[in-house]
Amino acid sequence: MLSYLVHSLLIILTIPVLIINWLCMALDNLFYPGYRKTEIKPPVFIIGMFRTATTLCQNLMNSDTHHFTYFKFYELLFAPSIIQKKLVNLIIKLDKSPSLLGNIAPRKIT
After folding, report:
1. Which candidate, 78, 94, 92, 104, places its Cα nearest to that of 24?
2. How many domains does the chain contain in total?
């Protein structure tokens, strides 16, 4: 019974996020039509056993912004569209400004 309630609650909480993501992605097509022309190179997967420097390899690749890019975890779940990313970046800028929001967030979002 508890499993059913948890599953139902997850569905109820997930549907609004999916609807918002879908709407924002539709707006991306309207406001940023050029993003579809971006060349996407083949991905690089880092696969290895535990304690074999895969995290070091990932961090080295992440530091080379000219050749590699990566998603932050919150971008995958809550901000997959360009409009949502710009909104999150605006909130971060406003949070850093003590005169506008007064640093209401206890720590940085990123």
Report:
1. 78
2. 1
